[in-house]
Amino acid sequence: MRNNRAANWADRFWVLLLTVLTIAFLIPILLVLMNSFKGQFYISDAPFAFPSEETFVGWKNYWNGIQKVGFFSAFGYSLFITVGSVAAIVLLTAMTAWYLVRSGSKLSNGLYYLFVFSMIVPFQMVMFTMSKIANLLGLDHPAGLIVLYLGFGSGLSVFLYSGFIRSIPLSIEEAAVMDGCKPLQTFFQVVFPILKPTAITVAILNAMWIWNDYLLPYLVIGSRYRTIPIAVQYLQGGYGSRDMGALMATLVLAIIPIVIFYLICQKYIIKGVMAGAVKG
Fold first, then answer.
1. Mean pLDDT of 30-35
2. Number of domains the chain contains
3. φ and ψ at 38, to 5 degrees?
4. Which one of 15, 64, 162, 233 has the fewest CB atoms closer than 10 angstroms to its CB?
């Protein structure tokens, strides 16, 4: 009986803790959404107040934000970089992990640990050298940025894929080879469909990171090709002045696409992470 009571209290504690954390994470988002419909001066005076008849400005902040930052151009660059980078990471790291796991040689094991080691190297250690090399190699444009994101995103992705691939029975691939499948056919027709949960997890994790990333695009492509985070930064004027209404509205517009993508695919995250990390 005491064990049941202790378990009930423990369950209630965790429910309460998770509820508090959920509210804590949602409050900043709700504040941004709420203030995006208020006049600029009222945001600073009463940031926690709901829009009233006096403070409500409708969609004015959204139109101002779209015009000031060139939102649609920035959205296009962000979409191109994110989709291209995620597609490259999902496909190429899956092929890499499959080869490293099935090869089983000392060289493959060494390469695998190099990928894992890259996960713990802080970006700040390599950012200036990386930006200089990117400039020398002519990668300082949106398409070149995809190559850089592929390099930075490969460590975690190879780690997740490798763990899942180790759980796939080798007999499945051997049966495909006996049926006449070549290596690429085996991968695309047999292995890659099985990797769907991990592939979606890799896509979500990298999409959220790349879409919201400010530092790498700023260092490599600067203001020539403004992504959404860089465009939002330009709402900050000289001497600390900023259009808070347009800033809040643009942040809401920047959040919406990645939230929709996450909600569509989030059910695969736990399955993919558990398969890639625990079984590995």
1. 89
2. 2
3. -110, 155
4. 15
Residue 7 and residue 115 share a domain: no
Residue 274 has pLDDT above 60, yes or no: no
Rounded to an integer, the average pLDDT of 179-194 is 89
State residue 7's pLDDT score: 65
Whether 31 and 64 map to the same domain: the answer is: no
Question: DSSP secondary structure string, 98-112?
Answer: HHHHHH--HHHHHHH
Determine the Cα–Cα distance for residues 29 and 34; give it in Å rounded to an integer.
Answer: 9
Q: How far apart are CA 150 and CA 84, in angstroms?
A: 9
Q: 117 and 23 share a domain?
A: no
The CATH number of the domain holding residue 167 is: 1.10.3720.10
Reduced to 3 states (helix: H, G, I; strand: E, B; else coil), residue 166 is helix
Neighbours of 169 (CB within 10 A): 8
Of the spans 46-50, 256-260, 275-279, which averages the highest pLDDT? 256-260
CA distance 262 to 250: 19
Range of the domain at 170: 60-278
Cβ-contact 201, 276 below 8 angstroms: yes
Q: How far apart are CA 261 and CA 210, in angstroms?
A: 13
Residue 196 CB coordination number (10 Å): 13
